[in-house]
Amino acid sequence: MTDAPSDHSSLHLLIGGEKVSGGSRKTQDVIDPATAEVLGSLPHATSDDLDTALANADKGFHSWRKESADKRAAALHKAAALLRERAGAIGELLTREQGKPQREAMGEVIYCAMLLEFYAGECKRAYGRTLVRPEGQSARVIYVPVGPIAGFAAWNFPAINVVRKVGGAIAAGCSVIVKPSEETPAAGLALVQALLDAGVPGDVCQVVFGVPDEVSRHLLGSPIIRKVTFTGSTAVGKHLVKLAADDLKVTTMELGGHAPVMVFKDSDVDTVLDTMVGAAYRNAGQVCVSPTRFLIEEDLFPAFRDGFVERTKAIKVGNGMEKDTQMGPMANERGPEGLAKKIADAKDKGAKLDTGGERIGNQGFFFEPTVLSEVPLDAEIMNEEPFGPIALLNPMANADAIVEEANRLPYGLAAYAWTNDPKLRSRLAAEVEAGMLAINGANVSAPDAPFGGVKWSGFGREDGEEGVMHCMVAKTIHES
Ligand code: NAD
């Protein structure tokens, strides 16, 4: 049994179960966002590597789809147990390459184990149905795996984004080639290694890296791939959907958001703040479901802003490897640069900077937890996902204005609301345009709950039974 990788010194591709690196392959540095030091060197797949992975995926699919649900479930259960055993080591790799505090990194690996355990059960629950027909005839619907899948994952959740690409696929009986982010490769590699160590064949689950646009064009250009699944920005998602359209491949898109937090007048301000301030700065705000647009009924606004700023100033920022760190650096150089530009634009347009707003130090990619308030709607940051440690607080006249502003953007991933008014709660459930709505809480993700968005936040779902079903297609058998 191979142990989890312990550092970034031997990064590789995983093709046909083999660790592939070296030769004439190009490489790229992997950077520690807390220090900007080089952690390791990542090989890029050659065109031949990608063709080999595709041929393996084709072969792997034809054998894995015939395996019993019991066998697939056993492998997923075992992989989950290995992830639990290795959570400490994988969590360290994850913090080093991505920056989040150890506690969050370990939690991420444990979530991956929980998701694989849930999917193990779903292998056996991919029920079809029998249709009503006259005597002597029958018709039934069965679900069959869609085929080899190509998955592309982002750097903000180096393990969860990868497990969401491979877990449902493997449970459904598909093969999958996944490309984790080149910026955070080791946690994804460790996750797939656990699946291989648990008995998933090497041609069923493979890992490649390279120049993202070149890898996706190569894999999507092959008729072997029947589904594409992506986590990342809306712009790249639209590009991949267009590429997938040429061969009418199935797509699942988990794209950006800009989540409203609707705080209605019957809320207890301290309870909301105790829950939502931590959520706003989790993973330095680099979360597609980050609560970002706080829409607060105006009577509550002054106390809400004061309490928010006080709590924000108390957050301890530091290297994620240090025990008392509550918020780590942003994950890459683009983060602080992009956020500083958006803050400058909002201030020019009249927003108030209540705290933060600057890079911290001259080493690594640290940025102060920031609060902007009374932010005009024409500020860029009110329209584009900030993806950084920032909260935008705006006073709102009444409930109607809050719901209208919540739905104003083309995004619709997560939304949050705080109220105990039962009528308002059912109105929100019906009217808020989002894939997930949390009422009086900050959690929108659980292994048994479908995760995904509407409008420009994408389509298709990961997690929940949908995470497996979206890797399958219905086939109807008519018998006379
Ligand atoms: P991006 O969309 O360019 O990159 C996100 C991921 O997609 C990366 O891992 C990248 O390797 C991959 N990618 C990029 N182009 C690709 C292609 N042509 N084919 C396949 N994969 C490709 O985003 P970014 O520059 O890293 O971040 C920009 C913004 O994207 C962020 O500020 C945020 O708004 C959004 N984002 C959203 C999520 C999410 O969880 N939905 C994750 C990361 C970034």
TrEMBL record:
Q: What protein name is recorded for this chain?
A: NAD-dependent succinate-semialdehyde dehydrogenase
User: What is one GO biological process annotated to this record?
Assistant: gamma-aminobutyric acid catabolic process
Spell out where the chain crosses the membrane: none
**Protein's organism:** Alteriqipengyuania lutimaris
- InterPro entries in UniProt: Ald_DH/histidinol_DH, Ald_DH_C, Ald_DH_N, Aldehyde_DH_dom, Aldehyde_DH_Superfamily
Q: Name one Pfam family in it.
A: Aldedh
Skewed-composition ranges (Basic and acidic residues): 1-10
Instruction: Please list the residue ranges annotated as the Aldehyde dehydrogenase domain.
Output: 24-477
The record's family statement is: Belongs to the aldehyde dehydrogenase family.
Could you give a GO molecular-function term held by this entry?
A: succinate-semialdehyde dehydrogenase (NAD+) activity
Q: Where is this region: Disordered?
A: 1-26
Keywords annotated in UniProt? Oxidoreductase
